[in-house]
Amino acid sequence: MIKERFSEKLKEILSSDDWLILQPEYEPEDNLKYESLFSLSNGYLGIRGSYEEGGKITLPYLYINGVFDKSETFMRELAALPNWLGIKLTIEKELIGIENCQILNFTRVLDMKQALLAKSYILRDKKGRETLVEGIRFVSRANVHRMGIKLYVTPLNYSGIIEVENIIDGTIINFYDAPRFKVKHTYMTANEALDKDGIYMEVATRDNHLHIGSGCRIEAYKNNRGILKNRMFHAFGEQGVEFGDFDAVEGETIEIIKYVSMYTERDAARYALHGLVKDEIDGFLETGFEEELAAHRAVYEEMWKSADIRIAGDFELDRAVRFNIFHLMSTGNERDATVNVGAKLLSGEEYGGHAFWDTEIFMLPFFAYIFPETARNLESYRYHLLEAARKNARKNGYKGAQYPWESADDGTEQCPDWTIEPDGSCYRCYVAVYEHHVSAAVAYGIYNYVKITRDKDFLLNQGMEILTETARFWASRCEYIAEKDRYEINQVTGPDEWHEPVNNNLYTNYLAKWNLRYVITLIDTLKKEHAKEYDRIIRKTGLTDGEIKYWEIVQDKMYLPRKEGTSLLEQFEGYFKLDDVVIEKYDENDWPIRPEALKTKKARQTQIIKQADVVMLLHLMGEEFSEDEISQNYEYYEKRTLHGSSLSPSIYSVMGLKVGDDSKAYRYLKRAAFLDLLNLQKNTREGIHAANTGGVWQTVVFGFAGVSIGEDGMLTVCPHMPKEWEGLDFSLHYLNSWLKITISRDNSVLVKVLDGETLEVKVNGQIIKASRE
């Protein structure tokens, strides 16, 4: 077992192997990958898995969700904030650290069950002194303003004075290892003692002058007695350092505990930050590290009761799926409706912490079925920024609400107009100009959220307003072509970003048509059944009968390209006229190899595509297409998709199961589940692929378990168990009940009610009554 690599103190703490992600040895070139994999988040903040003693290769970022800044950069991005991780141990001027000593033994693990990071290593310094250093780190989910580190330090062959430096580092900058893009998003306003002991550091963002307070205090204990001596505080520029030392005796273990807290002006008034941080740390000290850790574990125990998926007979995949769920559920915020989930969660700086269509299409279903309060917050985030979306539409010459391709804290478009290459050259980036399907994703997200949760209160109020304004946007975005008597959406980019811009991308046109049709139906229902809400929507949006009649015409005459006389849907107008290049070779990981034709032709000149586009449409709107249409289009586009985006494999897995391509669907799931763990795209260093984590959950639950909600509103389970699995079980919310679903190798299904009302579900085509646990 993995925990056998630790001493008795940590063995009794750590979970079993199915909950542990192991780093078995120290290789500096892997630092950035493991910093992402070992990130910890509690929804409020996230910190990468850097080393307390530092290192040469590191991106030691800490982010608080919602704290953005622009300064000299080309977009508002999550600001890298003062890093409180620092703990340096020194014996006679020799640093006890992984890059300063010979490593005799090394282990780090992410314990997903308890959301903590543990380490154990034996280090030998230049004078032959050997030290065992073990420890755990967590960011509390029970009290999100508390974070803690506990180290166990044992001199193995010496005695002496060990000096301790407790550090908050305010020098941290974004793009730490990219000279061309480096930027400091904060300025320091305080670097001082927390109280008579400890450190308090306060910084403010440069644009909006939002203040962030960080504080920490360190203690050393032997046999539960404080032994830290000669304490003092130093302000070294933008570093705050608390110094102390203690007497270490060969073979005896010292416990070093770091108590940390952070608050921002988003939580309290500026003048109160220092006092809040101090009081929080005082409370943490009074509670004690172990009790706070126990409260944190208790929260995660409840979260895992809801979120865990068990795959029997496929251990590595079982753990990999759990890894993706862990990072996704850790980042979702159940308390704050003004923040979203960024494309790299809170684990890395790529995409600046921005929210994309990824939230609604890939991540929202997980939260809606598992943590509905968090799902509602994600939907409320879009309502919070509705006025900004209206302004964005007006700026671009449209009506209604056009949601930005990349969204931060204020709802303005954060997708840069220019892309800068490593050599300094620039090229115009047209993504925000052409990729408008995010507005349809926002509308679909509301539809899907309400379908899953039955939250009619949200639909009748905030949801209807968003839906109305997105429909208005699409009606203004379409143009009437008189000679063809149809409406078109031209100069647009669909999910496949290798073809931009195009005319009449099927995915975009279809969802625009759907958005209009859905709102027309809802308005009619409101008028008949909810007069008060109908009046409110009409009053708030200015919607008229004439406008609705126009929408009916637009959606009725929307052009949807397809190959005449066949079931083949055309990705965009003219797609079938491109060079018909297909994928013929696969690598050792069963992944498509770029066709030889792409050495002489650009992808946009061929039918080779980046990611699921038509197939994505079939995934979202499958009930509106025949089995023949789904089957033929999956087969056609699967041979032409290179999966240049992490968003793609999970969708092809789900759809592969729908058409009976079970073997390939299983391989697509493995690709998605191990994407970051095995660094398959060579960019895990930039952070965890958030959309992929949601896609992995969808693949297991919607794909292999066959969960869906039918047109009759009934939950349906129709599994497709792969030969590699012996069993599958998971839980989800449906109506007013909490259900546990267990599936056997032979696709038989048992549904039990863990909490709530007994109800009927459809299993393998038969309606059954779920039994009580």
pLDDT < 50 runs, ≥5 residues: none
Coarse morphology: globular
Q: Name the CATH architecture of the domain at 2-306.
A: Distorted Sandwich
Per the CATH scheme, the topology name of the domain at 2-306 is: Beta-galactosidase, Chain A, domain 5
Oligomer: single chain
- Derived structural class: alpha+beta
Cα separation of the termini: 32 Å
Average pLDDT taken over every residue: 96
Number of strands: 33
Beta-strand residue fraction: 15-25%
The CATH superfamily of the domain at 2-306 is known as: Glycoside hydrolase, family 65, N-terminal domain
CATH class of the domain at 2-306 equals Mainly Beta
Pfam families: Glyco_hydro_65C, Glyco_hydro_65m, Glyco_hydro_65N
Active site: 497
Protein name: Kojibiose phosphorylase
Domain Glycoside hydrolase family 65 central catalytic: 322-698
